[in-house]
Amino acid sequence: MKFNATWTTSPAVMATRFQMMPKKIRAIVAGGLEEIGNEAKSTLKQNTPGKKLPKKWRMRRSMSPAHIRITIYNSDKRANKLIPLKDGRSTNLLEILEYGTSPSQPIKPVRAKALRFVVDGKVVFASKVIPRGVRPYSFMRITYHKTKRNMIRLQGVVVGKLFVMLKTGRI
């Protein structure tokens, strides 16, 4: 599961538009996207549950004449490892934490009379366990909506700067 912030409308149209932008405007776009990417990364770090996963968010930049792309991804190997589901589909840890899981069927012992596990250092026996499921944390959706607002704001700044440059004849 990755989080992309890309400055494009359609590849052909945006490539010509971005190439035609003055260097000052391209620098504003690049700096703005860098700032938005850093803010998204820190939001993900704050909202991701657990101790190890939040520390593994990374940011990758790629820039060409046609586009600027900021990708935020989690470098923890567990985050994207596929987990097979009973119905044949698969998911990963980040999806489970993002959307949560529903309570499943009770777990009962198959070859023994009771289930044995350790809770707070004490051995506990149970004839069955009913898993509660995982609550949804929505950290990716929260970050997406914050980033979307910032992208719209950045586009407004760029259009404003272009308008001023056109009006003053600097383009």
Count of distinct strands: 7
Strand order of the largest sheet: 1-3-2
Number of helices: 5
Radius of gyration, in Å, reads 23 Å
Strand content: 15-25%
Give the rounded overall mean pLDDT.
Answer: 85
Task: Report the structural category.
Answer: alpha+beta
So what's the overall shape?
rod-shaped
Q: End-to-end span in angstroms?
A: 41 Å
The helicity comes to: 40-55%
Chain oligomer state: single chain
Q: What composes the largest sheet?
A: 3 strands, antiparallel
Contiguous low-pLDDT stretches (5 residues minimum) are none
From N to C, what is the helix and strand string?
EHHEEHEEHEEH
Gist?
Helix content is 44%, strand content 19%. The chain is built from five helices and seven strands, in the order E-H-H-E-E-H-E-E-H-E-E-H. By secondary structure, the chain is α+β, with helices and mostly antiparallel strands.
Secondary-structure blueprint:
Elements: E1 3-6, H1 11-20, H2 23-47, E2 57-63, E3 68-74, H3 77-80, E4 83-84, E5 90-91, H4 93-99, E6 115-119, E7 122-126, H5 139-168
Helix pairs in contact: 2-5
